[in-house]
Amino acid sequence: EVKKFYKNASIALSDGWFEINLDKRKLKTPSGQLFRVPNEALALAVATEWNAQDKVIKRHNMHLTSLCNTALDNPFQKSREILTQGIIHFLETDTICYRLQEPEDLVQLQMESWDPVIKWATHRFGIEVKPTYTMSLPEVGTESKDIIRRHLLSYSDWALFGYSYAVESIKSLLLIMALVDKSISVETAVKLSRLEQEYQSEKWGNVEWHHDLDQLDLQSRLASAALFIHWSSENSSVIQKASLERQNICAV
């Protein structure tokens, strides 16, 4: 955290991109690049994050700013293929595909809560995913992975960073796909990703304030990722100018 050094954050259009100004200073990324985003909605949301800061700048709560920095700097130089493969990897470790065999009421709760999401994915994308009740991986066919790969590659580079951030947050690609498709809400996605934890809390109790803060923080991260994916898909012509492939070529 650092002390707030500006009074107002505003946006400015330049060369088809939207920049963020902190008073008269142009915002920069951690690597020193000019901070700029592909559309006005995302720019206004980022400016709102900066205007929401009080006496100190709490960067850990500025999820949209963080996502933009990652997309612009691409610190690990990930290509579209590497990003997509990393996202698909979560399909084999998807939270809602790992089921317990006891206690009976929890088994039933998992079926009632998680099976509809799997059925939705089956009908929406024509994929097959079979949950596992052992330590073995869920059954996901090569064809199903290829379908999801093609679907993910239809998104912009920036949106893929949002997808990656989202699945890492709740460890479930199926829930994120349903969220982005607007089939479930952010609150529902978080609730379903924490189903076993919620069950244990109701049964044995919890530290209420810690539980609530953890849930709200996760909802905030997921909502930011969903908005980032949506806004990053609105203006593909501008986003394409900042494609990972072009960045990699320039780096070479």
TrEMBL record:
Superkingdom: Eukaryota
Gene3D superfamilies in UniProt: ATP12 ATPase, ATP12-like
Any one Gene Ontology cellular component term annotated for this protein: mitochondrion
Pfam families found in the cross-reference section: ATP12
Keywords associated with the record: Chaperone, Mitochondrion, Transit peptide
Database matches in InterPro entries: ATP12_ATP_synth-F1-assembly, ATP12_ATP_synth-F1-assembly_N, ATP12_ortho_dom_sf
Location in or out of the cell: Mitochondrion
GO biological process, one term: mitochondrial proton-transporting ATP synthase complex assembly
Record flagged with keyword Electron transport: no
The keyword Ion transport appears for this protein: no
Family: Belongs to the ATP12 family.
Protein name as annotated: ATP synthase mitochondrial F1 complex assembly factor 2
Organism for this UniProt entry: Lottia gigantea (Giant owl limpet)
